[in-house]
Amino acid sequence: MNSDLDRFLREAEVLELTSLARSTLWREIKAKRFPKPVPITPGRVGWRASEVARWQKCPTTWKPQEAA
């Protein structure tokens, strides 16, 4: 298995890791202060574990990474 692959987190995992309430999570996403979820399949989204970890390092100054 490739160690460069990123794991996708479900909403419940993100809420547990961050201690945010569900409404707060979505409010922060809308305000661009938390990583956006990635569409995985129709009706299913996930968050990249690396992006959530980056947010956790400094939540007050986190900014989305520029697209390469």
Number of strand elements: 3
Largest sheet: 3 strands, antiparallel
N to C succession of SSEs: EHHEEH
Helicity level: 25-40%
Number of domains: 1
Strand order of the largest sheet: 1-3-2
Pairing-aware structural class of the strands and helices?
A: alpha+beta
Alpha carbon gap, first and last residue: 24 Å
The coarse overall form would be globular
Which residues form runs of ≥5 with pLDDT under 50?
none
What is the rounded Rg? 12 Å
TL;DR of this structure?
This protein is an alpha+beta fold and 68 residues long. The protein has helices at 11-18, 22-30, 49-57, and strands spanning 8-9, 38-41, 44-48. The N and C termini lie far apart (24 Å).
Please supply descriptive tags for the structure shown above.
AlpA family phage regulatory protein; 38% helix; Prophage_regulatory_activator; 3-stranded antiparallel beta sheet; 68 residues; alpha+beta
